[in-house]
Amino acid sequence: MTHLRFLGTTSDNGDCPTLYEVEGTTDILVQGNRVTDPEQLGQLRDVKDSETFVLVPRDLLVRFAPRTPHP
To answer: Tell me: the pLDDT tens digits for 23-39?
Structure first.
């Protein structure tokens, strides 16, 4: 079982967006609103059928995503 560690959110009411670290990896799981705009989706490259896309504010990434690399 893969564990997630809550990193932070810019939401005051428990709503998204939120960032989680996937423990034991260098991956960040992003919770946000799904991108549905056809123009935005049409500009994405190398999209796999298994992938989805979410929007998060830049300040959330700046505040919580920078971490010291795992040893």
So the answer is: 998 888 899 999 999 99
Q: Please state the pTM of the whole predicted model.
A: 0.72
Tell me the CA distances in angstroms from 14 to 8, 32, 43, one per residue in order. Answer: 11, 12, 31
pLDDT: which is higher, 15 or 29: 29
CA distances from 29 to 25, 38, 39, 63 (A): 11, 23, 24, 15
CA–CA gap between residue 4 and residue 37 (Å, rounded): 29
Domain that holds residue 20: 4-64
Residue 60 CB neighbour total at 10 angstroms: 20
Domain count, the chain: 1
Helices (H), strands (E): how many in the chain? Answer: 2, 5
